[in-house]
TrEMBL record:
Top-level taxon in the UniProt lineage: Bacteria
Pfam families named among the record's database cross-references: Hemerythrin
Protein name: Hemerythrin HHE cation binding domain-containing protein
Species of origin: Allokutzneria albata
InterPro entries given in the database record: Dimeric_xanthone_biosynth, Hemerythrin-like
Alphabetical list of PANTHER family matching this protein: EXPRESSED PROTEIN, HEMERYTHRIN-LIKE DOMAIN-CONTAINING PROTEIN
Residue span(s) of domain Hemerythrin-like: 16-138
Amino acid sequence: MDERLRAFGTQLIIVHDWLRKELSRLREDMDAYLDGRGGRPRDLLAHCMTFCTALSRHHTGEDTHAFPALAEQFPELAPTLEKLREDHHLVTGILGKLESLVAGADPADAERVRSELDGLAAIMESHFSYEERRIVTALNELAHGYDGTGLDLTALAAPRRST
């Protein structure tokens, strides 16, 4: 079996850690700009878009592939998976607001941008922690008893580090 298919749950934690770090970097970049500690980084919007796309792709992969596979093998996880899907919808709305704010951000928008980033960080941490507590073991068990047929969990792989 492919190494990637042996530890879905472990891979999920690696992706979450990558997303946490990227959000932290994005917050630092935005704070530096909004606090007047230098000019607006040229790639701030690109960094935001890359992060938002990676997070959206991760959640879509979970909703489309990982969660249905888990629900099939572990029906008792249905309420947990539904809560996680609800979180994904909430995050999607925040990402849309964040992308719009960052695209037109100037120092006058500092509080709104910080508020959205802080809200996103809080929701993501709560969501990731809950997900890790509730489904990592099941994902790892799924990986050991699953041949990978029809299951695309590439969204559980950490993207390459943005620059």
